[in-house]
């Protein structure tokens, strides 16, 4: 099975994690299963890979920031998605500096 629109990772296609893979098209991001079916529609402005402790991170209204050959997502409203792609709660912008008391 070929999954279309798989997002690029570190110089290669993103890998499946928990049966899902990042997909992107026309500036929008989502998640597809191993059959290529969209589990999360391409509705987010950015997404980050599956983090075992917090799940996938997705943002609306975030922007791509470039520095040399590197890029990251910043700003916007962030949510956590569980391993099935369901919204599991709000998340902090991972690019924001950590403030410790």
> What is the makeup of the main sheet?
4 strands, antiparallel
Note the gap between the termini.
50 Å
Which stretches are low in confidence, meaning pLDDT under 50 for 5 or more residues running? Answer: none
Gross geometry: globular
Count of discrete domains = 1
Rounded radius of gyration (Å):
13 Å
Give the % helix.
Answer: under 10%
In spatial order, strands of the major sheet run: 4-5-8-9
The secondary structure category is: mainly beta
- Overall residue-averaged pLDDT value: 85
Strand-helix topology:
Blueprint: E1 20-25, E2 28-33, E3 38-44, E4 46-51, E5 55-60, E6 63-67, E7 70-74, E8 77-81, E9 87-91
Antiparallel strand pairs: 1-2, 2-3, 4-5, 5-8, 6-7, 8-9
Can you walk me through this structure?
This protein is mainly β and 101 residues long. It has one domain (20-91). The chain has strands at residues 20-25, 28-33, 38-44, 46-51, 55-60, 63-67, 70-74, 77-81, 87-91. The strands form three sheets. The protein has a four-stranded antiparallel β-sheet, with no helix packed on it. Strands 1-2-3 form a three-stranded antiparallel β-sheet, with no helix packed on it. A two-stranded antiparallel ribbon has the order 6-7. The termini are far apart. The mean pLDDT is 85.
